């Protein structure tokens, strides 16, 4: 299954070891770290980030599902400005959850929406997913707005996770069928 997805302004591609500095800049930014999903503990050290990228790359190389990790790069410069994931949440369930993180300097340009929309469509049309969820942390208005711009609809509130009452958004295959 090809894992490179192109949009008008972005390329979603597998992570590479050369992306360590970019990944550290994204994941260690305080304005990003505060919104990472519970249990996401990305190392702030170069060695730790190298190990994390190697783990993601190994998983994605051998995966036969649509689950995985993508670097988000600008087509114009190839600079990595963000990250996307498709994971099972809760772990070992059939539910697929999208996550995104952008470098703060990339905020406000619509990149998260463009990348998220492309990945959701790929997961549904190429990866066989029937629906994709986003779990948004309390008070993360930017993430909630991005989920809605992707076309996701609010479906539930989870009150049993650390940190508060998380909002759950979903988009289904049927929601995309008329737009393509």
Low-confidence stretches: none
- What Rg, in angstroms, do the CA atoms define? 15 Å
What string gives the helices and strands in order? EEHHHEEEHEHEEH
CATH superfamily: Gcn5-related N-acetyltransferase (GNAT)
Can you walk through the features of this model?
- The protein is of the alpha+beta class.
- It has one domain (5-177): Gcn5-related N-acetyltransferase (GNAT) (Aminopeptidase, 3-Layer(aba) Sandwich), CATH 3.40.630.
- Helices cover 33% and strands 29% of the residues.
- The chain has six helices and eight strands; from the N terminus they run E-E-H-H-H-E-E-E-H-E-H-E-E-H.
- It has helices at residues 20-27, 30-33, 46-62, 111-125, 141-150, 173-177, and strands at residues 5-6, 10-13, 68-74, 80-88, 96-102, 131-136, 153-161, 164-172.
- A five-stranded antiparallel beta sheet has the order 1-2-3-4-5, sandwiched between helices.
- Helix 4 crosses helix 5 (141-150).
- The longest helix has 17 residues, at 46-62.
- The two termini are 21 Å apart.
- 32% of the residues are buried.
Descriptive keywords:
180 residues; alpha+beta; Aminopeptidase; five-stranded antiparallel beta sheet; three-stranded antiparallel beta sheet
SSE order and pairing:
Layout: E1 5-6, E2 10-13, H1 20-27, H2 30-33, H3 46-62, E3 68-74, E4 80-88, E5 96-102, H4 111-125, E6 131-136, H5 141-150, E7 153-161, E8 164-172, H6 173-177
Antiparallel strand pairs: 1-2, 2-3, 3-4, 4-5, 6-8, 7-8
Helix pairs in contact: 1-3, 4-5
